[in-house]
Known about the structure:
Helix content is 42%, strand content 18%. The chain has two domains: 3-247, Pyrimidine Nucleoside Phosphorylase, Chain A, domain 2, CATH 3.40.1030; 251-334, Pyrimidine nucleoside phosphorylase-like, C-terminal domain (Aldehyde Oxidoreductase, domain 3, Alpha-Beta Complex), CATH 3.90.1170. It is of the alpha/beta class.
Amino acid sequence: xxxxxxxxxxxxxxxxxxxxxxxxxxxxxxxxxxxxxxxxxxxxxxxxxxxxxxxxxxxxxxxxxxxxxxxxxxxxxxxxxxxxxxxxxxxxxxxxxxxxxxxxxxxxxxxxxxxxxxxxxxxxxxxxxxxxxxxxxxxxxxxxxxxxxxxxxxxxxxxxxxxxxxxxxxxxxxxxxxxxxxxxxxxxxxxxxxxxxxxxxxxxxxxxxxxxxxxxxxxxxxxxxxxxxxxxxxxxxxxxxxxxxxxxxxxxxxxxxxxxxxxxxxxxxxxxxxxxxxxxxxxxxxxxxxxxxxxxxxxxxxxxxxxxxxxxxxxxxxxxxxxxxxxxxxxxxxx
Length: 335
């Protein structure tokens, strides 16, 4: 039995995968995770996890790592699915991805890694990668068709997204810090990221039969609160060539600029695509320390003068470019 979880993506942040892998693996379930780098986003799972350890290994090295610690978090490249790698090299240059190509690419990796049980997360919303329920259902149909062909037990989770990111950090280093804050149960951890990670983990634990229906959430929270998930993550980081660290020691962009609220109100919407555009102008994902950190989230009340979010980068030119574009596009809607 080999488990896996995959999110279609499209939401900034939303870096649930490393948390899910750590919790699931802490229960002795094999979960070899391959992930792509960012195509159109501020960071992919591979870009983020590379802040903590190496994500580029051959298939033989991956086998040794998984045999040793029961899990891995890899960039799905090298010789794992070579035909798909050639297609991806073109996609990265185009900066776009068709749904059919996306499904094939994801399932190629799952089949190559010998996955038997898979949870698929398809968030949809106006500013997400999948914008409507009709497309979400069509993508689900394609995945279910291929899963049946390759004898993979698949559960698809479709839900409408909140109008904003998940987690407070957007960009590789800031997202890596969020991940460790959840695993290390820090007071300032993003609770929305923790809650979604637990929800996905619960579904996967129940799918593989580790938990009875309705009890997966309890087991997921237990692994976080008793420290076993963080212990497993340290094993994974070491096995892939990294050194485990405290969340607050992760280096983020030295140059910063605060965006201030000019009125009182409540945050009703965050424009995800504009948010990603600004993060990329700051240098993410190529510059791993670049990105945006949110101080205020959806539905939170704000007062005039409150810091809404902070731009982070190591490049003065990138910072000025991002500040200029913010005069033309919006990220927050406050009413």
